[in-house]
Design a protein that fits this description.
280 residues, alpha+beta, six-stranded antiparallel beta sheet
């Protein structure tokens, strides 16, 4: 390869020797202008094949359950920022970007989202009894493709392949999404009967015990979606999020709080050509 380059450069050197100073400068100027125009056109083509969007809104849901008189908690009590309550068991749009697609092109969509979970469980148990409480929270995501009339024309893979039997797939309001974050926390406390023996005398005693467990986590998650062979047209890629929570005093006495939230996020959309006759 090195010899081929040297050989091709030789006629150029001979040409520069023959040309005068003014002619040489004109030739170099034309070459430089051609390089700039070609580079600018290449950058424009590349940028037209990708787009992006960000999210700064905070969506949250919280559920309380108690029979020991504790005060209910709200999203503002748990998560920082101007959190906005969203309807549980329902997807809500958080990011979108418009892209023009030519024939036989597909879309690769990459997303990142910060999620937060909060679960608090407290049991208050007397001797000879058992108390059980449960709290849960989850954050779910999907990508859909909208046409010019804002109708959903496709759900991105792999969510489009989801069933109830697939780990990571969650049904929300009749539609599936991918699980970004989920937790189920259960606390059970049992106290046996109390028997007191003093010499030859025996008796009973009673007391209660209260135990609490609180977990709060915040983390960033990434997931990739695919729209294969979407067809010619102008489309909007929309990222939809859902949050869900639940809390229950299963038996005995206690309290539970479950909450879930999403916040800072981003997405990028790339227009690509997959191999011929590609399909899942």
């Amino acid at each position: 390869m090195e010899h081929m380059l040297l050989a091709s450069a030789q006629p150029t050197l001979e040409l520069l020797k023959i040309l005068g100073g003014n002619q040489m400068r004109q030739l170099l100027a034309v070459a430089l202008f051609s390089l700039l125009v070609t580079g600018g056109a290449g950058a424009q083509t590349a940028s037209s094949k990708a787009t992006a969007a960000v999210n700064t809104a905070v969506g949250c849901t919280v559920t309380n359950a108690t029979n020991i008189g504790t005060l209910p908690m709200t999203c503002h009590d748990i998560f920082s920022g101007a959190s906005v309550a969203v309807t549980p068991d329902n997807f809500a749009p958080v990011m979108d970007a418009t892209v023009k697609v030519s024939n036989s092109e597909s879309l690769f969509v990459s997303t990142s989202m910060v999620t937060g979970l909060y679960t608090s469980t407290t049991t208050k148990t007397k001797t000879g009894s058992t108390s059980t409480v449960t709290a849960m929270g989850g954050v779910y995501e999907r990508a859909v493709l909208l046409d010019g009339a804002k109708n959903v024309v496709a759900t991105a893979f792999p969510v489009a392949e989801c069933t109830a039997m697939v780990l990571g797939c969650q049904s929300i309001g009749g539609s599936f999404g991918v699980t970004l974050d989920s937790r189920v926390q259960t606390l059970t406390q049992s106290l046996s009967d109390c028997v007191v023996n003093v010499g030859i005398l025996s008796g009973t005693c009673s007391f209660s015990s209260t135990i609490g467990l609180v977990l709060q986590t915040t983390s960033a998650h990434s997931f990739d979606f695919i729209f294969p062979n979407v067809g010619v047209g102008t489309y909007t890629v929309e990222i939809q999020m859902a949050v869900n929570s639940n809390a229950q005093v299963v038996s005995g006495t206690g309290s539970a709080v479950g909450a879930a939230a999403f916040g800072l996020g981003s997405m990028t959309v790339d227009v690509v050509r997959l191999v011929h006759d590609f399909s899942f």
